[in-house]
Amino acid sequence: MIVAIDGPAAAGKGTLARRIAKELNFAYLDTGLLYRATGMKVLHLGGDPEDAVIAEQAARSIDPETFNDPALRTDAAASAASKVSAIPAVRSALLDFQKSFAATPGGSYQGAVLDGRDIGTVVCPNAPAKLFITASMEVRAERRFKELQERGVESIYARVLQDMKERDERDSSRSAAPLTAADDALVLDTSDMTADDVFAKALSYIAEKRD
Ligand code: C5P
């Protein structure tokens, strides 16, 4: 069983995916990390994240062992990720890893949950359960701003909002696998929902699809 979760930045995909994985004993892959690791690798090499040649090389040499690096959680990594992710050669270099994770999650797992931007449309188009998690731009910027404050990262709300707008715009307008809900996805606007509400809705939807 594969659960595909897509949506824009800070909509609550990661929190939801982690809770679902724990509840159902599924393996979890945050696919944003692959793009973040690629973007950071380019920056470390002193390259430009929009340079297709260096970005593809970086995508082919990322190491899953480094996915816990806190540097991947920064806005600099997010911004570099959104640039490298618009390059088709980068997307195809990262596709096999994601597909094989979904097909063979390993261990005693009963299935896999993947979250990202194109899981239901490109990576796992045959996933039986697809969720598209969204929320208004202001709510998402507010959530991200609070999260940064809690982590003690100094930030300005207007800047967070601006960064999010730019990233959404890039992710939605690119020609390679743009951010969009699959036709058969359950779309949840979480602007006025609690994390518990979202979790309960998602679980009952997955249970329906599992039968
Ligand atoms: O989900 P996260 O915010 O970590 O993703 C960082 C960036 O990576 C996104 O803004 C997007 O550009 C890219 N991404 C993608 N496809 C995915 C996951 C992430 O293009 N499946």
Total strand segments: 5
Radius of gyration, CA atoms, in whole angstroms: 16 Å
Query: Order of strands side by side in the largest beta sheet?
Result: 2-3-1-4-5
Work out the count of structural domains: 1
Termini separation = 11 Å
CATH superfamily: P-loop containing nucleotide triphosphate hydrolases
Largest sheet: 5 strands, parallel
CATH top level? Alpha Beta
Contiguous low-pLDDT stretches (5 residues minimum) are none
CATH topology: Rossmann fold
Question: Could you characterize what this model shows?
Answer:
By secondary structure, this protein is of the alpha/beta class. It has one domain (2-210): 3-Layer(aba) Sandwich (Rossmann fold), CATH 3.40.50.300. Helix content is 53%, strand content 11%. It has nine helices and five strands; from the N terminus they run E-H-E-H-H-H-H-E-H-E-H-H-E-H. It has helices at residues 13-24, 32-44, 52-60, 75-84, 88-103, 119-123, 137-150, 157-173, 195-210; strands at 2-6, 27-30, 112-116, 129-134, 186-189. The chain has a five-stranded parallel β-sheet with strand order 2-3-1-4-5, sandwiched between helices. Helix 2 crosses helix 4 and helix 3 packs parallel to helix 5 (88-103). The chain is globular. The protein binds cytidine-5'-monophosphate. The site of cytidine-5'-monophosphate has 14 residues, from helix 2, helix 4 and helix 8.
